[in-house]
Write a structure and sequence with these properties.
The complex is a heterodimer. Chain A is mainly α. Chain A has helices at about 5-20, 25-35, 45-65, 85-100, 105-110, 115-135. The longest helix of chain A is centred in the middle third of the chain and has 21 residues, at about 45-65. Classes of the chains: A mainly alpha, B mainly alpha.
Chain lengths: ~140, ~140
Amino acid sequence: MSRLLVSALVAGALFGLGLAMSGMTDARIVLGFLDVAGAFDPTLMFVLAGAVATTALLFTPILRRGHPLFASAFQVSNLKHIDAPLLAGAALFGIGWGIAGYCPGPALAGLGAGSLESLWFVPAMLAGSLLHRLLFR
Amino acid sequence: MFEAWIPALAGGVLIGLSSVLLLWLNGRIAGISGIMNGVLLPKSGETSWRIAFLLGLIAAAGLYIAFVPGAPQPRQGFSTTGLIIAGLLVGFGTRMGNGCTSGHGVCGLGRFSVRSLAAVLVFMATAMLTTFLLRHVWGLS
């Protein structure tokens, strides 16, 4: 197995561990954060703060290195413009997130726990992505 | 006192470290919707690392939830129709907007992308509005 696969597997495992430990795999906790007018649950705020503080601190020195350790170049979006598809896509994603409390990571993580909700949500999410592909290409 | 902040913050740092590791070693962005879409519509040489990442994510989360005492358990019993509509919107929207909470949120904000900040503000706003309408106006969830 190439080192690119091992590093991706380890990074994925860290991500899944973080989601499960922080409670993001429980959609009640996520909706508790989104429900600002109800019994507001700040958990998601701490998760996002911990994650963004880590990337904000370490991404800049990494990207300054010129190239990643195991590959020839960084593949990072250099798009700058804020356009209609970005905003409309984000708006639609938010509506779906606000309905059930799942964004893609926690929905996939739920598969590992055998969650029935993920078994409904994930195929629908894949279908939604393919539907976009059918309509816009 | 809100006690869940310690595992929340620690879990967040793990998610951040995952993104740091993937960028530092492989030069790739740990955006879950992007990784998933890359598996769905494969491009040569870019599929196997994405599958490895997703398998690691699913297995680690499953093992933690199954074996760690007191681990938060996934919710059960939400409306199936609701899950399907929500899934379609999340899949469609993250593809159209090129990212989700991880790609635009954790990674985009971490590299101070104004484009990602705009996406985060929009999806946070529509998610909060949706939850508000469903719970407090229409009494549906």
